[in-house]
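Weekly structure sync, notes
Attendees: PL (lead), two postdocs, one rotation student
Agenda item 3: pending single-chain targets
PL asked that the sequence for the first pending target be pasted directly into the notes so everyone works from the same version. It is reproduced below exactly as submitted, 422 residues in total.
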Amino acid sequence: MSLHHSIYDSPVFRQACRQFDLAADILGMETGVRERTKQPRRCLTVMLPVRLDNGKIETFEGYRVQHNISTGPAKGGIRFHQDVTLGEVAALAMWMSWKCSLVGLPFGGAKGGVVVNARDMSTGELERLSRRYMQEIATFIGPNLDIPAPDVGTNEQVMAWMMDTYSNHVGHYDPGVITGKPIALGGSLGRREATGEGVSWFTQAYLTDAGLKAADTTVVVQGFGNVGSETALALAAWGAKIVGLSDFTGGVANPRGLDVKDALAYVAANRSLQGYQGGETVTNAELLELPCTVLIPAALERVITEQNAGRLQCRFIAEGANGPTTNEADLILAQRGDIELIPDVLCNSGGVIVSYFEWLQNQSAYYWSKEEVFSKLHTMLAKAKASVEGTKKKFNCTRRTAALVLGIARVAEAKAKRGLFP
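Predicted structure, written out during the meeting:
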């Protein structure tokens, strides 16, 4: 099947497919198995009419892509963003498949999205949109079929509305349908911090491997949403100096260090970093090129490109976001050889691991302490890191390709063992 005739065709989907092909080449995967493992299993497109506060009805477009359901129920976030496309959602669903497989979760990969700028909506409008989206996809998901979670532009409250809508649909309280919920509705302690906690854990682990100490570490975080802010808080608590932060309005840089808690309080009061006085104002493009030990892209995909990859001044890139580095940038970074990259499918896997813990707790109606959650999380992260490093050595490939080789091989094997039906 030619990619360019695919309904998913887009720059980000081609990026995900190219990454897949590099790993599949190393695995010597034959064409039939390759196509079956690469292509998304199925997708749903829904139209979402919502009554706005002014009385008018506006219709939004929403998607849910299930990339792989051969290894368990699909798992993946729901993003509310004005630039969401079906191709982007498909690429993110594919990355979720490899991520779940890499860290050994009994899940396949999925992703959802609605084309909307949620920041322009009132709380009431956001609730009506969230409930309508869940109502439209309710027959497509479930605790044993597909388990959504928060992503860009959604949060615990959105998950709560969606869980309530689904529970009304099936006629009973069913918290296991969605993760990233508030604690009062079956959420897991540590879930909100989980992705950032994982990014911070990997950053610390790789810096320690390189003989670097917290006191000598400077960090730039691009994207100050859930992942970026939790990562910044965790690394600051470890003792690193956060020298740059940004969100969709732009960034702020201070070589003497920024107070992350103060920046968070500012954002809570002003809804963005715009106007924050903690340092010098910089654009997102300038922020990525600031000198630092660790650069953490934690916003959207495709921000490290062939245009700026040669100018980066960091020693490590820890990918908090999914797909932040283009294929062309990957090549430039490999040629440079002076930047260690911790790839997204490994680096930000903490979120889906604790989502798995949340789902397990919902299934058994038995809840764990935050210490238990983080202790189990760190064990799984360490195991995944060790297997990636071993695979990287074995095939003499990049860390990204090593992580994908592991994730893809497990999915391909599961599909092969199950065989074709009928």
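Discussion points:
- The CA atoms of residues 157 and 182 lie 7 Å apart.
- The chain is about 45% helix and 15% strand.
Action: rotation student to compare against the earlier draft before next sync.
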